[in-house]
Amino acid sequence: MNRTTLEKHILARTPYNQIAAALSLALFIVVLLYAGWTALLIVFVLWLAALTYGGFASSRREFAKVVRAREEDRHVHDELIARRGRLVQFADTTFEERSTMLAARFGRVDQNVDDVVDPRKAVRARHAAELVAQGVTSTRFCGFPVTVFDLDVINEADFDSLVKMGKAERALEAATVHLTVCAVTLPYPLPYLSSLAAWEPGMLAELEESVDGDVPAELRHTDDPDFASLLLSVPKVLRAAHDLDLLWTISGDQLVAAAMSTTGITPESALRRATDLAAVAAALPWDRLEPFRRDTADVPAPWPLHRSRFVTHQWWVGNDESGPTVRRWAHHPIGKTGTYAFVGVGSDLGEPRGAFKVS
User: Fold this and answer.
1) What pLDDT is stored for residue 44 in this prediction?
2) Minimal CA–CA distance to 135: which of 105, 176, 180, 173?
3) Is the dihedral of CA 149, 154, 157, 158 positive or negative?
4) pLDDT, the chain, mean
5) Pick from 297, 290, 262, 258: which is nearest to 276 by CA?
6) Could you give the 3-state DSSP secondary structure of residue 243?
7) Residue among 100, 109, 133 nearest 333 (CA)
8) What separation in angstroms does the CA of 97 have from each of 25, 280, 337?
């Protein structure tokens, strides 16, 4: 998922750093013994200059490599969006290349970034203010309206690495990846619920809960525990909640799932996810949901961090002791600028909750 190299520089690894240190020390001793202190000072300055230039050249090469990879991924994404547009030949399917209105419901935030001085903060605020839904495809599955679209989002690890190597604007562009969102419109608004409610918190999540005592643990993934219990008592819904390839969220009148990738996903994969998500909507116990009906589908923007509208697919982080990692998307304050970035917040999962096991 990351375009930047995750491995340490060769001189930051053992035994290469030890060999380089030994050779450097030997060089300094030889110069001191045979040429004196003045020569040693000159050699030391040249040695520092070589190290500095080596690091600079390595950074430039890394940045250029990432920029090339981003360009290749952009071309692939453009082709995938074009292929998605050709799906309008099917009945009851519409396509729109770009939509700011839809993006405003799923991440775009109206904010003034002119007063943000720090370039690193300004580009993040501008990204959230200019977010656009791309390749908007609308159709119906299982009787529900379904919309599929892409959002440009930022790979935080790539951006943090690249912004140290070059200008913030170029770093953000090179760190851009794609979030393919599937949204099913429900007949009426319902309480907030994330499928993560069916899971025990993992190691990292437990640490977060111990630090943040403002949000009760049971409300992190729902604002109505009775609603969550009802939905997760339905075997089909519970099985869907345990599907780590289709993590989903109910927020207002939207049932949403998303997948992050460097190029976007194929139209076929997007439609398959959309049909799977529509099947989840059809499995909800609609004959018992009227008491939970909400008057409005509005969600405060910026959304509270624990109420983000959707999550991406899970991924594994090496052989870490923590469980599968997922990412939630929400607005996050940018320092004290009064502006917000649209960021992914990672957390890990433990085992399925004992109260919500598939029978």
Assistant:
1) 79
2) 180
3) positive
4) 84
5) 258
6) coil
7) 109
8) 61, 27, 32
Amino acid making up residue 130 = E
Amino acid present at 59? S
Residues 6 or more apart in contact with residue 143 via CB below 8 angstroms: 282
For the chain, what percent of residues have pLDDT higher than 90? 46
Tell me the C-alpha to C-alpha distance, in Å, between residue 42 and each of 25, 30, 38, 46, 170: 15, 13, 6, 6, 37
Q: CA 104 to CA 82: how far, in whole Å? A: 23
Cα–Cα distance between 222 and 248 in angstroms, integer? 12
CB 191 within 8 A of CB 222: yes
Which of the residue ranges 39-53, 229-243, 264-278 would you say has the lowest mean pLDDT?
39-53
Question: Shortest CA distance to 182 belongs to which of 154, 153, 143, 141?
Answer: 141
Residue 351: name the closest of 221, 201, 205, 228 by CA: 201
What are the structure tokens assigned to 192, written together?
């907030």
Report the candidate in 350, 344, 348, 349 with the shortest Cα–Cα distance to residue 1: 344
Amino acid identity of residue 80, one-letter, is L
Q: In this model, does residue 10 exceed pLDDT 50?
A: no
Cα dist. 203→213, 324, 329 in Å? 16, 11, 20
Residue of 226, 182, 212 whose CA lies nearest to 347: 212
Residue 77 and residue 264: Cα distance in Å, rounded? Answer: 6
Tell me the two tokens of residue 262: 């460097």
Q: Which pLDDT score, from 0 to 100, does residue 207 have?
A: 54
Residue found by looking up tokens 């007063």 in the block? 115
pLDDT at 269 over 50: yes
Q: How many residues does the chain have?
A: 359
